[in-house]
Design goal:
4-stranded antiparallel beta sheet; 14 strands; mainly beta; 1 helix; single chain
C-alpha cells in the first residue's frame, strides 16, 4: 500500500501525495478529535492539516492548510472500528515538540523507536486492538528496539510512557 505524504510542502493549498513507505517524517500524521465525530489530520512535520478544499469529484486532490477550522478540514471515519481507532489515536494531544517516531512501519522483526531527548528513560507497552498488553519493557537511549517477530500479523499500538507524558503510536506487524 501507499502512504499519504505531505512532501514537506508548507504552502497553503499544496497537495499531498502518495508514496511507498519511505520512513520520511513527512509521512507522519496526527489524528486530532475536533468536533463530535469529526477529526482533523495534521502533518507532524509541517503542522499543516489535510483539507478537501471544497472539491466534490471522485479523485480530486487533497490540499494542506495551516491551522484551519474550516469544515473542509474535518474528516469522519467510515466504520465504528475506524472511529474507535481514531479516538484512541486522538486521545493524546498533538504538540509541536519533537515526537517519537517508529520505523519501519509495517514491521516484520524489529520495531525501532526514535525518542526525542526529552523522552529518554521511557517505558514501552505494545497493545493489540482490543487494548490487551502483549509486551512491556523499558527503553533507554535515543533508539529503542522492540523485537516483534513473534507477534501475529495485525494492527498494534505502542504506548510510550515517561514521568511526564504518555504517547501512543500505531504500527502494523506483517
Amino acid at each position: 500500500g501507499l502512504y499519504l505524504d505531505g512532501m514537506g510542502r508548507t504552502t497553503n493549498g499544496a497537495t499531498a501525495g502518495q508514496y511507498g513507505n519511505s520512513g520520511s517524517p513527512n509521512q507522519h500524521w496526527a489524528v486530532e478529535q475536533f468536533d463530535g465525530d469529526f477529526y482533523r489530520i495534521r502533518n507532524r512535520t509541517t503542522s499543516l492539516y489535510l483539507d478537501g478544499m471544497g472539491r466534490t469529484t471522485n479523485g480530486a486532490d487533497v490540499g494542506q492548510w495551516a491551522n484551519t477550522t474550516n469544515a473542509n478540514a474535518q474528516w469522519g471515519f467510515g466504520s465504528p472500528a475506524a472511529a474507535r481507532m481514531a479516538t484512541t489515536l486522538a486521545a493524546q494531544p498533538a504538540t509541536a515538540d519533537a515526537s517519537p517516531t517508529l520505523y519501519p512501519n509495517p514491521v516484520r522483526d524489529v520495531l525501532h523507536i526514535n525518542l526525542p531527548q526529552s523522552s529518554r528513560d521511557t517505558r514501552a507497552r505494545i497493545l493489540n486492538m482490543t487494548g490487551q498488553v502483549v509486551r512491556s519493557l523499558p527503553l533507554t537511549g535515543a533508539d529503542g528496539a522492540l523485537d516483534v517477530h513473534d507477534l501475529p500479523s495485525g494492527l498494534y499500538l505502542v504506548e510510550l510512557a515517561t514521568a511526564t507524558q504518555t504517547t501512543r503510536l500505531r504500527f502494523v506487524k506483517e
